[in-house]
TrEMBL record:
<dbReference type="Pfam" id="PF00682">
    <property type="entry name" value="HMGL-like"/>
</dbReference>
<keyword id="KW-0456">Lyase</keyword>
<dbReference type="InterPro" id="IPR013785">
    <property type="entry name" value="Aldolase_TIM"/>
</dbReference>
<dbReference type="InterPro" id="IPR043594">
    <property type="entry name" value="HMGL"/>
</dbReference>
<keyword id="KW-0614">Plasmid</keyword>
<comment type="similarity">
    <text>Belongs to the HMG-CoA lyase family.</text>
</comment>
<dbReference type="InterPro" id="IPR000891">
    <property type="entry name" value="PYR_CT"/>
</dbReference>
<dbReference type="GO" id="GO:0016829">
    <property type="term" value="F:lyase activity"/>
</dbReference>
<protein>
    <submittedName>
        <fullName>Hydroxymethylglutaryl-CoA lyase</fullName>
    </submittedName>
</protein>
<feature type="domain" description="Pyruvate carboxyltransferase">
    <location>
        <begin position="6"/>
        <end position="273"/>
    </location>
</feature>
<keyword id="KW-0479">Metal-binding</keyword>
Amino acid sequence: AAPGHVTIVEMAPRDGLQNESALVPTTEKIRLVDMLSDCGYERIEVTSFVSPKWVPQMADAAEVMAGIRRRPGTRYAVLTPNMRGLEAALEAGADEVAIFASASETFSQKNINCSIAESIERFLPVAELCREKGILLRGYVSCVVECPYEGAIAPASPARVADLLDDLGCYEISLGDTIGRGTPEAVDAMLAAVLERIPANRLAGHFHDTSGRALDNIAVSLDRGLRVFDGSAGGLGGCPYAPGAAGNVDTLAVNAFVTAKGFATGLDVAKLEQAAAFARTLRTGS
Ligand code: HMG
Ligand code: MG
C-alpha cells in the first residue's frame, strides 16, 4: 500500500522573508503568496503580526493579508506573539495563528524578550480567544536540539515546552531546529522524548538547513511517524535572532524526498518551481 500523505506547510513568505534586511515591497510579497496558492498548498504561513521594531520586514502584515487571493482549500496562517498580534490577525481574517515558544531560555529572551514561563503566560489569553473564535492554533518550539546561544539542548526541554503548548490547546506543535545544526541522532533523541507526551500525528518538523542535514532529519521524523513538514520555496529564510542560521529546507527538496518514498503531497511541482524562482529573486542577500 502507498505510505500515505505528507503535508508540506509553506514558510517562504514568513520565515523566508523575515530575515531579509532590505524591505521587500508589499506587492511582491502578495505576488509570492498568490503564486504559492496556485501550487495547491493546504497551508501557507503568510506573515507575522509582531512588533515592527523587532522585525521591520513584517510591518506590512495587514496589507499583505488584505492583498492576497484566497484559494479555497488553502489555510492562511500568521504568527502572533501576544494579544496585540492576535487581534490584528483576527482583523486580517487569518484562518490559523501560531504562537512561538522556545526550548532555550536565552533564545526566548532574545527572540520575544521574556522567559519561557512568561511566554506561556502571555499565550494563555491568545489561546483562549482562539478557542472562543474557533481559530486554529499552532504552536512552535524553537531550538529543539541546538540553541545559537546555549549550544546543545537536552530533549527534556522541548518535551516540556511542547507539553505546555499542548495544554494551551495547540492542534499541532512544530518542532524547530532553528539554526539548522541538528544531527539526525539528536533529532531522533529529541523526538523520542517529545513523543512520550504528544502523538506523532500532532507534531510537525521545522528544519532549517544550515548543515545540509534537514532531509536526513525529515527521514528520522518520518520513521517516528511525523507527516507534516515546514518548508520554504527557494530555501529562503532564517531568524533575525538566530545569527548564522540558514533558511528552511527547500520545499521542492522536501517534495522530491517524500515523493520518492512514495508519499503524496498534492503539490504542483511545475508551479512550485516557478514560485521558488520568484522567491529567490526577493532575496536581497541579508
Ligand atoms: P517587547 O519590546 O518586550 O514588548 O517585545 P512591548 O510590549 O514592550 O512592545 C514593544 C513595542 O512593540 C511597543 O511599541 C508595542 O506597542 C509594539 P511602542 O509602544 O514602543 O511604540 N508591539 C507590537 N506591534 C505590533 N504587533 C504586535 C506588537 N506587540 C508589541 N504584536 C515582542 C515583545 C514579543 C512584541 C517582540 O519581542 C516581538 O515582536 N518579537 C518577535 C520576534 C520574531 O518575530 N522573531 C521571528 C519569528 S520566530 C522564528 O522565526 C522561529 C520559527 O521559525 C521556528 C524556528 O525556526 O525555530 C517560528
Ligand atoms: Mg524558523
